[in-house]
Amino acid sequence: MAEQEVPKDTTSKKPRPGIRKSAFWKNLIYDNLRTTQQQHLSHGRLDLHSMLIYPDKIRHFYSDHEVHPSRLIDNQNYARWAIEEALREYQPETNFQVTGSISKGKSVTVGQRIAKAIRADAQQEIDAEDPNGVKETDYEVIQDVGAVAEAIISASPNCLGPPIEACASYLRMKKCGEYGRKKLTVWKSPLFPQLDGQDGRKGFLDNQITAIVWIMSRFLGQLPALKIKNKELWDEAQKRYVQRPETPAEIEHRKKLRGPKYHGGILADSMGLGKTLTTVACLDILASQRLNASIENGKSKYRPMLILTPNSTVAAQWVEEIEQLSSQRGIHRIIISGSGAEKKPHQTRVHCLSCDEFNFDWPSSLNYVWDEDNFEAARAVFVMSIDTWSGRTCMTTENKSGGKEWKSSFTEKGRKFSVVVVDEAYKIRHSATRNWKSVALLERQFTLLVTATPCMNVMSDLLGPARLLWQGAENYLKKTPGKWDEIARRFPTLEDLRGLEHVQPWKDLQLAAGRPAMLALLLYRHRSSASLDIRQIRDFLSHFESLAILRRAPSSHLYMDWKKTERVPLEGLLPKVDNFTVNIQSDHALEEAYQTVHIGLLIEYLRTAKNWKRKGGKSSDLTSVLTIHRQFQLASASLDVHRLDNLLERNGFGAKAEHVYTMRKANVNFTHLAPFLLEPGDPEPEVALDYIKLAVRKSPVLRYILHHVKENLLNRGTNGKIKKLLITEASPILAYYYELVLQFLLIHCRTLHAGLKNTERRELIASFNDDSDHSCQILIQMYTVGFAGSNLHKNCSQVLVASQAHSLPVQWQAVHRVIRVGQESDVQVYRLKVNNSYHSFRESRQVEKILPELATRARGPLNRVFVQLLNLFQFEVDDAWKRPEALELVESMNLLTDPVVEEEDEMPAPKRIKLEDGTTEETEAANEELIPSSEKSPTTTLGKRKREDSEPATLLSTASFFKKYPWGFLAMQRRERYYKQFMSYQGKIKSSFCHKKNNLRRLLSYGGPHNNATRRKWSVEDLDNVAVLERAMELTLRIRLGANNIEMLPLPQIDFSLVPKEKLADLAKLMRVAKTTDQDIEAAREKLGQRAQQKARSKEMERNCVREIKEEMDLDKIDEMLNKDITSGETEGTRKRRKQEEAAEAWLKTQSLDNDGGNDVDFEGEEHLDDDDGLAEVASIHGLFDYDEDPGEHFEEQDGNSDNGSNATSTRPITQSLPNATGDLSDADVLDQISVGINADPNETPPNREEMYKRRLALLNF
Prior knowledge:
Layout: H1 23-34, E1 41-42, E2 45-46, H2 55-61, H3 72-88, E3 95-99, E4 107-111, H4 112-118, H5 121-124, H6 126-129, E5 140-144, H7 145-154, H8 164-170, E6 174-179, E7 184-188, H9 206-220, E8 234-235, E9 240-241, H10 248-256, E10 264-267, H11 275-288, E11 294-296, E12 299-301, E13 305-309, H12 312-325, E14 333-337, E15 350-353, H13 355-359, E16 380-385, H14 386-393, E17 394-398, E18 404-408, H15 409-412, E19 417-423, H16 434-440, E20 444-450, H17 463-479, H18 481-490, H19 516-525, H20 534-548, E21 549-550, E22 557-559, E23 567-569, E24 577-585, H21 588-614, H22 625-637, H23 639-650, H24 657-665, H25 670-673, H26 688-696, H27 700-712, E25 725-729, H28 732-744, E26 749-752, H29 758-769, E27 778-782, E28 798-801, H30 808-815, E29 827-834, H31 838-855, H32 863-872, H33 874-882, H34 884-892, E30 900-901, E31 913-914, E32 920-921, H35 924-927, E33 955-956, H36 975-983, H37 987-991, H38 995-1004, H39 1009-1012, H40 1026-1041, H41 1061-1073, H42 1078-1088, H43 1091-1097, H44 1115-1127, H45 1132-1136, H46 1138-1149, H47 1174-1183, ...
Parallel strand pairs: 10-20, 10-21, 13-16, 13-19, 14-15, 14-16, 19-20, 24-29, 25-27, 25-28, 26-27, 28-29
Antiparallel strand pairs: 1-2, 3-24, 4-5, 6-7, 8-9, 11-12, 17-18, 22-23, 30-33, 31-32
């Protein structure tokens, strides 16, 4: 065999062109990336022995190291040496600061009140029933701060389940063993003969038995006595099982365990806590006890059950679990169908249907399944992927008005179900999708949604599941008109839900909190995470959480008994998890290069937003916001990959998901990719080390990955086993880049990507879970590829979060692949973050999305936990006040990076901004509208003027915004207000604005009075201030993430201290006219919905009627609209917008958007929709100013719509009267009522000038 050379630049003698369209690059793309190469992988490592045949050339290429893909120790020695040499030249400038000890050694006192907030709702009624219970002062528990943070984020004090002892009594449980390092109890019961914890069989854990009872209480309301059907209890004479009578204690337990008859619920336990086993056990007991039979006209109706899974792989896992865990007396028939579905030899209860049998030719042997008089029907369960189910059963027909009408083939045939379970229920969070409608159109008695992330992205994600759950409850209430009428009478508005606090938790009146019309009103008021009122979320949504959701984390605590005398932690269920943030500091040259690229992207970003605004969102010649965000993401991780993306794009190829797939199919390795990384004048790599140096040259994230691999993987542990690493990544090209580099280093690395077939995916997961020398050592998990069913914990306990997901719940789901029951090692999670990069902005957006959901936890006694956290970390505020730069900032009130000279033709015209808690910021520019012309002075004149020759140059500063009210500079306010304030500044100020100073200012605002002369001591009452509540929740997230700080950024801005002044001048020009933050764009997207996104992806998806809801509508009208929306294709309002949306969608098709923004196709062909992708962004902006809606609903007016003909934002009114001269209200109360400008209530009619002037005078007098 002839020797092959390592691929090189075949035209290297000619000068290599830069990033432009060139025949040079096109030829190289064809030769290296498109043409199928010879496969040179062996055991997942690059094997160049087939290319460099001669031993001396191999030794030379690997710098005299003995390597071979089959020799693990030699390979690891070489990799360790090569990584150290490659990173040496970037030290000490490049450093990695690992933070994660923010809460180390800190603890909080969890007293009785706090513990009461963490226990189950069913327990709360005992306070009234048992006056002799333990008093609040009887005990206190010291709990680690990290565990408390985990409990708050991953669980909810509103929904933690009933006490263990009562549930064990009801289910006839007995202790049969212990589990985990905390020796938690393992239970067994004669009701579940397959689960006795013996001989390798599973048993029940505390959280699982409480979950079973909670689900049954939400299904049935009053719990019936259960019957044990053992042979020993069979009475041949009576032909029945003879049961022993219940004891008084058992009767009392069963009575107290009752709940509101909701006919459904959301099982939202943290990932890894055994939700599948819980659900199978629950279905089994319902079937064996005939509790899933419906009583109609005094006669029992028996119907099968249905389990819908996210994909066929997970469906197969459910079938295995049912086979192993359920009893023959319960589930006796499992019916499967769909792509990849097959019956295995040992599966005696499984029947596999072909597509034709499922749709048309139903087998006669299964006719009993639809015989409602046959009790065997209730013991059958269907298991299918939801995409297969919806594709086969859900269809549209044209109605008389020409619109689409949705129907279910099963409902049309009269086929009904007793229980419908949806696993990974995030797939039905949008009611406009076929998947959602395929469930909503089914006639069913009970609905159980299983997901660890009820809110995948924004709070509105709850509405789709809530509507599905309500269908059963609504049918029940309509059959009992008295209850329905009482709910309608007592709870006609959101505010009336406060009355539920005085209603016993088990009463059906609690069902009022689950009424979708009520939730729709709440979400109508605040259609996006940017505009959500945290206080309203805390006050109202928590009632829905208590009713509908069971949510526990490994750090949660349950109670053993009703008297609360013994707390049972769940910490021992899952391994200990340490969370770290790695702050990566780039060397000076890379930092300078990155700042130059970032400012170019930011300029493009602002031009895009400006063009959308100027043309009403109809631009078709600029890149979408998503694509720019993608480029930000690539550049922050690797300037070389960012350059590669641009180069390939300009030469007819690309670096998006479809192009990565092409390269994979062509067997591209790093030697094929390396020539594209070379810049003009770069020498070609000669040896392997040259390639590694090239790979890390401008890739800070890769530098840390290799550093971590060298320090933690390339050595044998005490047990001599290979060490594993999981890397999570959002971008396909970055994942591919890391994979190729690691393979080049002779490390077995693979990516779990969308192009894998089912069998390939299973084989890869099995290899990663194996501990043999040639098994997969590093696995890269894509966020956009469904990870349901991917348990990766058997040999891996290290995770690197290489890039942030669009939301924290998605990110945590990926990480939890290694945090499962059965993990034997402590887990370390390292979140990578490049300093002064796009990563800080992404982190800021993640936090802002999850804050509203966390607000539901901030109720009642649990507020004391937040207060303790505030006081525990008040030292950060005190230390900040001691820093010289803090004192200088307070003195100057200047938030700019450098002095900025005012332009000759521009005078500052800042606006008057209402702050969160007792302050306004205004300048003379804002005052002019409010001051009579006779009182005006020349200094208050607005507009442009030319500076006189004798006048000295004026330095701009933000201090002028606060000169009237300097105390406003340090007023506490929520994030949204800081962003609005920033956007009101001049362009010159915005372009030189220092967000680092602004974050310091925010931290200082939490200090004590008189410049922190007295240390502030927080109290529960302070949490009524949203700014304080935000601080408490951010502290919780910082502890969870292992982060020293979380920045506050309205735009993807960074420090541009190394950027040429010409670029800064270009940025200033665009900043001058910038009117929207990234939060505004996302708010508009969420407000206008995702219809264009959905329709562009699937022609079958419908429009969402929620946007048609108006606040003045009564609940009955909203209910009517929501129910009609299940089958109706369009509403009147959506029909009006059809032409505008079709134009937007036509434009969308012309855009080349990257799949890695969330459109990455899963292994079974499903699409995982990412709420952050550009289709939704563009669709929202396209409709932002065109739709025929009340202009007051838009976050800013159209061009030319303001009273003075400018683009200024309209002023809006207060909603209450001002205080009288005696000062009935506090400073915060007064200023909170003055809603002027961009911070005001968008639903009010703007006041006239005279009214505005009166309000201003009232404020000044106060």
